[in-house]
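User: Hi! I have a protein structure encoded as tokens and I'd like to know what sequence might fold into it. I'm fairly new to this, so please keep things simple.
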């Protein structure tokens, strides 16, 4: 649960920085958010969740 909240906060900060600094349009950010909601309810959700969990485990093993 803590990992999910951290990932959401990290991605939210990245989106805010992209909107402010890199010229990402607000409409593009909204479309990305909607894509995330649709992917979460699709058949690909377990695969994406497994991939993100394996990446988090790999990063956890690298840290001291």
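Assistant: Happy to help. Inverse folding works backwards from shape to sequence: for each of the 64 positions I chose a residue that suits the local structure. Here it is:
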């Amino acid at each position: 649960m803590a990992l999910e909240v951290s990932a959401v906060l990290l991605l939210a900060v990245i989106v805010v920085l992209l909107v402010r600094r890199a010229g990402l349009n607000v409409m593009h950010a909204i479309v990305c958010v909607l894509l995330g909601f649709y992917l979460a309810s699709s058949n690909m959700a377990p695969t994406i969740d497994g991939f993100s969990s394996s990446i988090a485990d790999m990063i956890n093993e690298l840290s001291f």
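A useful reference point when you look it over: The chain has a mean pLDDT of 83. Feel free to ask if any position seems puzzling.
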